[in-house]
Each structure stands twice: as structure tokens, then as C-alpha cells.
Amino acid sequence: MPTLVDRIDALLPQTQCTRCGYQGCRPYAEAIAQGTADINQCPPGGAPGIVKLADLLATLPKPLNPANGVEKPLEAAVIDEERCIGCTLCIQACPVDAILGAPKQMHGVLAGWCTGCELCVAPCPVDCISMKPVSPARSWTDTDAGLARLRYYARLDRLAADKREREQKLAAKSTAATPPTDPKLAEAEARKKAIIAAAMERARAQREGARPKNLEPTSDEVRRQIAEAEARRARLAGGRS
């Protein structure tokens, strides 16, 4: 059975324009159901939408809050092909995948899919996107809202799938770069490192303990040998005299 949020969401235009102050129609519906948002914050729904919400919630209609925008005829985005640089920022901003194109290539708008949300206008770095009234003029219908909802959630599913794929590729790359460790190889590697560390420590100790030989204390045996040599030299010197 549909919840109150479901029934409120079903009355919203599904343009996902965020003018209501929320990140889409569903969050706005949740806020209305919780009593933290009013029923007059949706410019695309306009006065007819406010009346529908008031009937559902058994309350009185009220004028559209001007802080959220004004009610106006249905518009669609148009891209100036000569100025488009193919940055893809508008593609990333479109909530219903109504913009086609590739990096560094001219983009185009699927007019029949565009909800008129205007979210693609601000990100464009060369101001090549403008909003134009649809021709022939018409109103946004419940059928339009239903199709927009399907495209919006299809886009969310696609983005989620793309994210999972990127994460899986990163995980696979990380696993390939770090193969499983063999316990025996790990033990041998640890022994090798220990041997090298010990050798380096011995070399360091030897360097620090090395002293010039002429600074070493003279031993008793060396002093005796020196005394005998001096005595021999003295006897020889006396004999020559």
C-alpha cells in the first residue's frame, strides 16, 4: 500500500529541479510528509500542484512561495553548438540524462526528455545553454512526470553501477599488485632481512670502534721489546767507542 510519501511524490512533477529547496521531488515529498516543508514550494507544479497537495493533506491551498521561484510556461534547454566546448558538465548535471555528447564533442538536448529544470545552465563554463519555451506551447502532464521519474531513477541506477564497476576495477588492480604472501617465502625474507640488519650493525660497530693504531695503549710486552732494543743499541754504541 502506498505510503503518504508515495502519494505526495506521485503529485509532484518529477522535474527534479531542486527549486523547492530539496535535492529532488522525493526528498521534498518526505519533508512535506514530516511537516518540515510547505505545500507551496514547487514552481513547476504551480497552482494546480498546490491544489492537489492541499486536497491530499486536507488543508487549504496557498499561493506559490516567491522565494522558490515563479510559475512559468514549460521550457527546454537549448545548446549553442558553435560555442559548446564539450566539457560534459551539463551532462553530469542533467537529472534525467536528456543531454547527449562526449568529451570535447558538441552536446545536444533531447527536447522531449528535458524537464526544464535549468540545472545544466549554471555549470556551463561558456554560457552556451539557454532555456527556451517549448514549441508548440504545452503543459507538463502526468505522463511527462511519470516518464521523467523513470529516467531519473534509471540514471541513479546507472551512476551506482558505474561506481561499483570503478570500485571493482580498483580492487582487482590492488589485488594484482599485491599477490598473496607465501608463509615460507615470508619467513625466508624475514631471515634475510635479519641477517642484513645484523651485518650492518656489525659494520657500524666496527666503524665506531676503529682508532688510529698509534693511539692504542702500549702493552707490557711491547715495552719490554722496546727496552731490549734500546739496550742492544747502547751496547753496540759502547763497543764502537
Structural summary, described in words:
Helix content is 49%, strand content 6%. It is mainly alpha-helical. The protein has a domain at 4-68: Orthogonal Bundle (3-methyladenine DNA Glycosylase II, Chain A, domain 3), CATH 1.10.15. The chain has a two-stranded antiparallel ribbon. A hairpin with a 7-residue loop joins strand 2 (99-100) and strand 3 (108-109). The chain is elongated.
Write the layout of secondary structure elements.
Blueprint: H1 4-11, H2 25-34, H3 46-56, E1 75-79, H4 89-93, E2 99-100, E3 108-109, E4 129-133, H5 142-177, H6 183-209, H7 220-240
Antiparallel strand pairs: 1-4, 2-3
Helix pairs in contact: 1-2
Oligomer: single chain
Summarize model confidence as the mean pLDDT.
88
What is the count of β-strands? 4
* Relative helix content: 40-55%
Give the uncertain stretches in residue-range form. 211-216
- Give the C-level CATH assignment of one domain: Mainly Alpha
One letter per element, helices H and strands E, the order comes to: HHHEHEEEHHH
Give the strand content: 5-15%
- Number of helices, counting only DSSP H or I runs of 4 residues or more: 7
**At CATH's second level, what is the architecture of one domain?**
Orthogonal Bundle
Rg, alpha carbons? 42 Å
